[in-house]
Specification:
A hairpin with a 2-residue loop joins strand 2 and strand 3. The strands form two sheets. A seven-stranded mixed sheet has the order 1-2-3-4-5-7-6, with helices on both faces. Strands 8-9 form a two-stranded antiparallel ribbon. By secondary structure, the chain is α+β, with helices and mostly antiparallel strands. It has a single domain, classed as Aminopeptidase (3-Layer(aba) Sandwich), CATH 3.40.630. The termini are far apart. Bound molecules: coenzyme A.
Length: about 200
């Protein structure tokens, strides 16, 4: 049975630099994924996932292993032909601050580029981490409506305090889409383009 693996499958020692295995997830990863994600969900940091949900979206997931134990995970979920979301990003407590989160985001960004996405976004409580990964904070309401479907079952639905962040992958394509969503793209000298939400007209 998939769920026979438990927290023992997670790492207990800090990760060794350079000893990380990154790959797309497989069905055998589901139990440790559930442990990792739902461990954080229990403290309200992430949305909980069921075995069914992870099975259904296993192809979205990538994993990082260290010493044979799950050190981190993340998923790239498509919303449109041009936009995707990074979700279920988590690094095991004992593996934090060793670059695992960065490697996972880089892998998901590379995957998004392979699929020719124009932009990826995330809802997060750690915007400073995402800023370091090249994301920019945007007005939550500017993101596509479909992105809110998970929110309907979130305990914080009425009082959401997550921050929306976006990273543009294809600036030229993004201009049209961002205008449609009420955002502008501008380029700071010597940096990647960044988004500035436009206050919606009543
Ligand atoms: C957020 C999280 C994924 C970061 O993973 P990590 O492996 O510890 O991060 P890294 O070691 O790769 O850090 C990369 C950079 O981000 C910084 N960073 C890491 N966590 C940060 C945080 N919470 N706030 C601000 N900066 C952070 C690091 O200092 C590092 O900066 P540097 O490159 O200047 O040295 C991890 O802390 C986690 O799983 N948190 C709990 C679950 C969660 O909040 N997930 C996000 C859901 S959207």
């Amino acid at each position: 049975m998939i769920s026979s693996l438990t927290a023992d499958a997670l790492i207990e020692q800090p990760v060794a630099a350079g000893a990380l295995e990154l790959r797309k997830a497989r069905m055998s990863d589901i139990a440790p994924l559930l442990d990792l994600i739902n461990g954080y969900a229990a403290s309200g940091i992430m949305l909980p996932r069921t075995e069914f949900e992870i099975s259904e979206s296993i192809r979205d997931f990538s994993v990082v292993y260290s010493g044979g134990k799950l050190a981190g995970c993340g998923a790239l979920h498509f919303y449109s032909p041009t936009v995707g979301e990074i979700r279920s990003l988590a690094v095991h407590e004992s593996a934090k601050t060793h670059g695992v989160g960065r490697r996972m985001v880089e892998m998901l960004v590379a995957e998004a580029c392979e699929y020719s996405l124009d932009a990826i976004f995330a809802f997060t409580y750690v915007p400073d981490f995402f800023r370091k990964m090249g994301f920019t904070e945007v007005e939550r309401g500017a993101l596509p409506l479909k992105a809110w479907k998970d929110c309907l079952r979130c305990p914080k639905f009425q009082a959401c305090d997550e921050i929306a962040v976006v990273r543009v992958l294809e600036p030229d394509h993004w201009v049209a889409a961002s205008q449609k969503w009420g955002m502008a793209v501008t380029s700071l000298e010597g940096t990647e383009p960044v988004l500035f939400p436009i206050v919606r007209q009543k």
